[in-house]
Specification:
With about 260 residues, this protein is an alpha+beta fold. Helix content is about 30%, strand content about 25%. A hairpin with a 6-residue loop joins strand 10 and strand 11. The radius of gyration is 17 Å and the shape is globular. The structure holds magnesium ion (2 copies).
């Protein structure tokens, strides 16, 4: 199903996006050397509850996971890239942490992910991976406007990741968003321009480039959820929810400093 929002729904989508952005930025400042991933999950839960929102993850039980997820945020560290199940692990200096959060507020969902290095010991590889996924995300957003097609976004994202030297996995990618977290259309992180669904105002999309340093292959962790690079290499993930508008794309999950 592809959901197109009407004008009265867009303000609610903005509110959901702002909440997700604010929670992620708060968690980013709180995550330091010695923080436990279960603390991050608890902090996320408390902020979601306080805002009167609902986590999209707690009851999430798709075919590929050992559901329900049972936690409020995805915490993926180093070689873990997607669906990282919070567990009893303490963050160390130099860990590359990806946080992925989706909440429903006022009946609409926003979905965003950030990656950053904990502490001061950021390796050049970590910085490069994060930078590439952020640039790919910006390129995808720039390609998203009325009349463009999903393939234009996929091509823009895949070109940046490829030029950065990262193999691209097209199994997991972006998606439509609306009253539920995962909707059509699928937005692969590589593709041919001019192909696929034509974008129109009112469409919400989550764009989410992610990268692994030296492989396109994933393995599932023993926890049944966490997806890791098959080689153990480092990984990164950047995601925004955007709304297609008459003029282009509005980033709903931009940090407050950018929204202002
Ligand atoms: Mg997400
Ligand atoms: Mg998503």
């Amino acid at each position: 199903m592809i959901e197109i929002l009407d004008r009265t729904q867009l303000p609610r989508a903005r509110a959901a996006g702002a909440l997700v952005a604010d929670i992620l930025q708060t968690l980013r400042t709180r995550c330091e050397v010695g923080t436990n991933l279960l603390d991050v999950d608890r902090w996320a839960r408390d902020m979601i509850t306080e805002a009167g929102a609902q986590s999209c993850y707690v009851d999430y039980a798709p075919s590929f996971g050992r559901g329900p997820f049972g936690h409020h945020i995805c915490t993926s560290v180093n070689d873990a890239v997607l669906h990282g199940l919070p567990h009893d692990r303490t963050l160390a200096d130099g860990d590359l942490l990806s946080l992925d959060l989706a909440v429903s507020l006022g009946g609409l969902v926003a979905d965003s992910a950030i990656s950053f290095v904990v502490g001061d010991a950021a390796s050049a590889e970590s910085v490069a991976l994060i930078g590439a996924t952020e640039r790919a995300l910006r390129a995808g957003i720039a390609a998203a406007r009325p009349g463009a097609r999903i393939g234009d976004i996929s091509h823009a994202i895949g070109t940046v990741l490829g030029e950065a030297g990262y193999p691209v996995n097209t199994e997991f990618g972006g998606h439509g968003v609306g009253s539920t977290m995962h909707q059509d259309p699928h937005v692969a992180n590589s593709g041919r321009p001019g192909r696929g669904y034509r974008l129109r105002p009112g469409l919400l999309l989550a764009l989410e480039p992610w990268a692994m340093a030296d492989t396109a292959e994933l393995v599932t962790d023993a926890d049944g959820w966490t997806l890791r690079s098959a080689t153990g290499c480092r990984t990164a993930h950047s995601e925004h929810t955007i709304a297609i508008t008459e003029d282009g794309a509005e980033v709903l999950t931009a940090p407050a400093a950018v929204r202002a």
